[in-house]
Design brief:
Elements (H helix, E strand, L loop, with lengths): L5 E6 L2 H13 L3 E6 L1 H11 L3 E4 L8 H10 L7 E6 L4 H9 L4 E4 L4 H8 L16
Parallel strand pairs: 1-2, 1-3, 3-4, 4-5
Helix pairs in contact: 2-3
Length: about 130
């Protein structure tokens, strides 16, 4: 499937992360759910995700700090980082942007909201969509 993406879900609530991963797998994506910020940083390096859904309030390493670590990594293709949190106040939205996070979703996010971010990942052109030489 050419539209298959690697999606990483980072949350200190293991059940929530695994549930989101399972839903996205049902849509054909390869997912990895990890528990906590430190595991999230390690998973970005090992899994090379296209999209990372990232909780902000984790006890070991905040989502803001995870984002800063990821943005400092030398990666062939940096992932889209999307905060997935219960916090929606103006200060949170400002801090999300300042940390290099691409977007912000409030929990509970809908499947449509999650898929909208996944659909932002550039896809390779297919044979039918390429221009053919004249």
């Amino acid at each position: 499937m050419t539209n298959r993406c690697r999606v990483l879900v980072v949350d200190d609530n293991r059940d929530a992360a695994e549930m989101i991963g399972s839903v996205l797998e049902a849509f054909g994506h390869e997912t990895l759910a990890v528990n906590g910020g430190l595991a999230g940083v390690a998973a970005v390096a090992a899994f090379a995700p296209h999209v990372v859904f990232l909780d902000l309030g984790m006890p070991d390493l905040s989502g803001y700090d995870v984002a800063r670590h990821v943005r400092a990594m030398v990666l062939p293709v940096p992932p889209l980082l999307v905060a997935l949190t219960g916090w929606s106040d103006e200060d949170t939205v400002r801090r999300v942007a300042a940390a290099g996070i691409d977007g912000h979703l409030c929990k509970p996010a809908t499947v449509a909201e999650l898929m909208a971010w996944i659909n932002r990942v550039p896809r390779p052109a297919t044979a039918t969509s390429r221009s053919l030489p004249a």
